[in-house]
Design a protein that fits this description.
Largest sheet of chain B: none
Shape of chain A: globular
Number of helices of chain B: 14
Largest interface: A-B, 26 and 32 residues
Largest sheet of chain A: 4 strands, parallel
Number of domains of chain A: 2
Order of helices and strands of chain B: HHHHHHHHHHHHHH
Low-confidence stretches of chain B: none
Number of helices of chain A: 10
Number of strands of chain A: 8
Strand content of chain B: under 5%
Mean pLDDT of chain B: 85
Distance between the termini of chain B: 45 Å
Strand order of the largest sheet of chain A: 2-1-3-4
Strand content of chain A: 5-15%
CATH superfamily of the largest domain in chain A: Nitrogenase molybdenum iron protein domain
Helix content of chain A: 40-55%
Order of helices and strands of chain A: HEHEHEHEHHEHEHEHEH
Shape of chain B: globular
Structural class of chain B: mainly alpha
CATH class of chain B: Mainly Alpha
CATH class of the largest domain in chain A: Alpha Beta
CATH architecture of chain B: Orthogonal Bundle
CATH topology of the largest domain in chain A: Rossmann fold
Oligomer: heterodimer
Structural class of chain A: alpha/beta
Radius of gyration of chain B: 20 Å
Mean pLDDT of chain A: 82
Low-confidence stretches of chain A: 17-24, 118-123, 213-218
Number of domains of chain B: 1
Helix content of chain B: over 70%
Chain lengths: 299, 289
């Protein structure tokens, strides 16, 4: 009898003991505000992190409305990674409302910001789309690495190794962008697009992005704006017009027809595509934008 | 100077010409329909129907993407189902038409919003639904002009029963059975014109360009033909002036057009010779003399 009980207790102890390492292996729950950030966290966190994005692939973070399910995911998360710079105006309230105890990390900490161009009816003056310059994303990666290490000290070494490896890939990406841009004749390095989310790309690589609308995707252009942009394309001989995955395409087509500029293809700015799309990861996104730009501007 | 202000924007830019053609075509289709809506005390029905179109357009979008004709077709079907359903319920049960339509409208709106939200990336759809008069492509223009042509022909066809039902439905029922079919055909016209306007110019503009010119015309004429002529003219003027306003003052084009239509209405309330405020304040002086 007593031996049986002993055996039972031993068995119980054994299961508890074996379940303790299993609990330690439980992955760190992290929520990123949008798909690009989620991709970066996935690259730095690797296997140790369970990552979710509030604004998923193909959706526009500017007009996102949080759902109760999102509040639950935020409440369950240990770490919330945001872009900051006014990109996710809705997030503070969501974190408070969810009662989450998660640390909120701003991935753009330490980035040299630039002013938003042309945004007349905009609440904030800083352009939040800093990830469009690859050099900035290396800072994102460093911030994410530190935040993950703080939330999960046991994995600090793994995070550091991942971040270093990913930064090396970013360096290669940066070099590829620069050499591709160098092949485009200097006079043709300008396009017109209906979303000026590319301010950092423009500043870093010297391709000029001219937009008929402000920074936000929610302002309706007036006839005057459209007329100005058409006049501008004709006067400056801008070779290509680009569509963007989250704005009204018909207006762009009209402008292209009226000016003879080429419709260059789709540039992805604020969101990744689904896994079967052309830009399922951040590196793919930049490469896709680069090939599309080069294709429209070199010929 | 006059040329620069009033003509140059259209001479210089094709998108302005297209926008003008679009708004004028919509004026010809929607304004007469608006007159009948007003005469039958159904002015708010236009608003209701605009919401009712949403689920159909959303389904059309889900099935075939941003195809103007698929979305217009879906909107048309949804609007017709609701218009006919509401009319049938009103004619066969105790419920009045406005009440049954309100019921349908609210259900339809909820279904539409649900489909839009569940359908994933909804931004494109909303952009499409709230359309921009500045981005009219060939397809959309063709759709608007076809709808206007069809609706003018149909109005000519059902003109007599329609007018009779406005002024004396009892008499019409005693001499003819055309009242019911004419009413249904008329509701179909309302839906069609809303779909055309809705697609090109968004909900706001579609309903506004239907109702505002009609209520403006009411202050200028008693004769229904005159009223329609004035409504079409004032809708056209609103379109033209609104586009100019958008061009020179940088206002968003859709709201600018409706604001001008609204200003015409406000002015007519004051100075309109048929029941306008000024004419009521000084009644019949020229008759006494």
């Amino acid at each position: 009898m007593s031996t049986l009980r002993c055996a039972f207790v031993a068995l119980l102890a054994a299961t508890i003991l074996t379940s303790v390492p299993a609990a330690a292996q439980e992955r760190l729950k992290v929520i990123a505000s949008f798909s690009i950030l989620a991709d970066l966290v996935k690259n730095v966190g690797g296997e140790r992190v369970e990552i979710g994005a509030l604004v998923g692939a193909g959706s526009d973070a500017h007009v996102y409305a949080p759902t109760p399910a999102d509040a639950r995911r935020v409440a369950e998360a240990r770490l919330v990674v945001v872009n900051g710079l006014g990109f996710e105006g809705w997030l503070d309230r969501l974190v408070k409302a969810s009662g989450s105890k998660a640390t909120v990390t701003v991935a753009t900490k330490g980035i040299k910001t630039r002013k938003a161009g042309g945004g007349q009816d905009h609440g904030h003056d800083v352009d939040p789309h800093a990830w469009q310059a690859v050099a900035n994303v290396k800072i994102y990666v460093a911030n994410i690495r530190d935040a993950l290490a703080a939330a999960d000290p046991a994995g600090a070494d793994a995070y550091r190794a991942n971040a270093t490896a990913y930064s090396a890939r970013l360096d290669a990406l940066e070099a590829a962008v620069r050499s591709a841009v160098a092949k485009i004749p200097a006079a043709r390095r300008k396009i017109i697009t209906n979303h000026d989310a590319f301010g950092y790309f423009e500043a870093a690589y010297g391709i000029k992005f001219i937009a008929p609308q402000g920074v936000a995707t929610d302002s309706e252009p007036s006839a005057r704006d459209v007329a100005r942009i058409i006049t501008q394309i004709k006067r400056q001989k801008i070779p290509a017009v680009f569509l963007e995955n989250i704005s009204d395409p018909r207006l762009m087509q009209r402008i292209a027809k009226e000016t003879g500029a080429r419709i260059g293809g789709t540039l992805y700015s604020d969101a990744l595509t689904e896994a079967n799309g052309p830009a399922p990861t951040y590196i793919d996104l930049i490469r896709h934008n680069l090939t599309t730009l080069a294709g429209a501007l070199t010929s | 100077m006059i040329y620069d202000t009033f003509i140059a924007p259209f001479a210089e830019f094709e998108f302005m010409r297209r926008a003008l053609v679009g708004t004028i075509a919509i004026a010809f289709g929607a304004a007469p329909v608006g007159i009948f809506l007003m005469l039958r005390r159904m002015s708010l029905i236009g608003d209701a129907m605009a919401h009712a179109i949403l689920p159909g357009a959303a389904i059309g979008y889900l099935l075939s993407g941003l195809n103007v004709f698929a979305m217009a077709g879906g909107g048309l079907v949804a609007g017709l189902v609701i218009a006919i359903g509401a009319a049938l319920i009103a004619r066969t049960t105790e419920l009045k038409e406005d009440a049954s339509l309100a019921g349908f409208l609210l259900i339809s709106l909820a279904v539409g919003v649900t489909i839009v939200s569940v359908g994933g990336s909804n931004v494109d759809l909303l952009r499409f639904l709230f359309g921009s008069v500045l981005g009219l492509d060939d397809q959309t223009l063709l759709l608007i002009v076809s709808i206007t042509t069809l609706s003018l022909l149909a109005l000519a066809l059902i003109w007599r029963p329609l007018v009779l039902e406005c002024v004396d439905p009892g008499f019409l029922r005693s001499v003819s059975r055309a009242g019911g079919p004419a009413h249904l055909a008329f509701l179909a016209l309302v839906v069609m014109n809303l779909v055309g306007g809705f697609h090109a110019l968004g909900t706001l503009l579609a309903v506004g360009i239907m109702i505002l010119p009609a209520v403006t015309a009411r202050f200028w004429a008693r004769d229904i033909t005159m009223m329609i002529a004035i409504a079409v003219a004032s809708a056209g003027v609103a379109g033209y002036t609104g586009l100019l306003l958008s061009f020179h003052a940088g206002l968003p084009s859709g709201p600018a057009v409706i604001l001008v239509a609204g200003a015409l209405y406000a002015a007519s309330v004051v100075v309109g010779p048929v029941g306008g405020l000024l004419w009521q304040a000084f009644p019949g002086r020229h008759l006494e003399a």
